[in-house]
Design brief:
The longest helix is centred in the N-terminal third of the chain and has 42 residues. The chain has five helices and no strands. It is mostly helical. Helix content is 85%, strand content 0%.
C-alpha cells in the first residue's frame, strides 16, 4: 500500500511541479511578448500619425500593425516547428506519463501559436489605440 501511495503521490507532486513551472514560463513569456510589442508600437507613434495624416483610416493602421505582428510570429514559428519536431523524433522529450503522439504535438503547437497571437494582439491593441487617438499634426509636430 505504501508503494502504491508513493507512486500516486510522486505523480501528483510531479504534475503539480510541472504545472507550476509551465505557468511561470507562460507568465514570463506573456510579459516579455506584451512588453516587446507594446514598446514597438509606442515607439512608432510618429509613423502611425504620418500614416493617418496621409489618409489611412484607424482600422487600416491597426490592421497594418497586427499583420506585422502575425508575420513576425509566423516567421518565428516556421523554424520552431522543425526544431520541436526533430526533438520529438529524436526522443529528447520526457514522456513518462503520456506516450508521444503527433496529434498531441500538433494540438499543443497550434495552441501555443494561438496563445502567442492573442498576446501579440494585446501588445499592439492598447498602445495603437492610444496612439491613434492623438491628432496627426500634434504627433508629427513633436517629432
Amino acid at each position: 500500500m505504501k508503494e502504491a501511495f508513493d507512486i500516486e503521490q510522486g505523480t501528483v507532486n510531479y504534475l503539480n511541479t510541472t504545472y507550476a513551472v509551465i505557468l511561470f514560463f507562460v507568465f514570463n513569456i506573456f510579459l516579455g511578448m506584451l512588453g516587446t510589442f507594446w514598446f514597438r508600437t509606442r515607439k512608432n507613434r510618429s509613423e502611425i500619425a504620418l500614416r493617418m495624416a496621409l489618409g489611412c483610416s484607424r482600422m487600416n493602421v491597426f490592421g497594418y500593425y497586427v499583420l506585422e505582428g502575425v508575420l513576425l510570429l509566423v516567421s518565428a514559428a516556421i523554424p520552431a516547428v522543425f526544431v520541436c519536431a526533430n526533438m520529438q523524433m529524436a526522443d529528447l522529450t520526457v514522456h513518462t506519463l503520456m506516450e508521444p503522439a503527433w496529434g498531441r504535438f500538433l494540438f499543443c503547437f497550434v495552441s501555443a501559436m494561438l496563445l502567442l497571437g492573442i498576446i501579440i494582439l494585446f501588445g499592439i491593441y492598447f498602445p495603437a489605440r492610444k496612439a491613434m487617438e492623438i491628432e496627426p499634426a500634434d504627433a508629427l509636430h513633436n517629432e
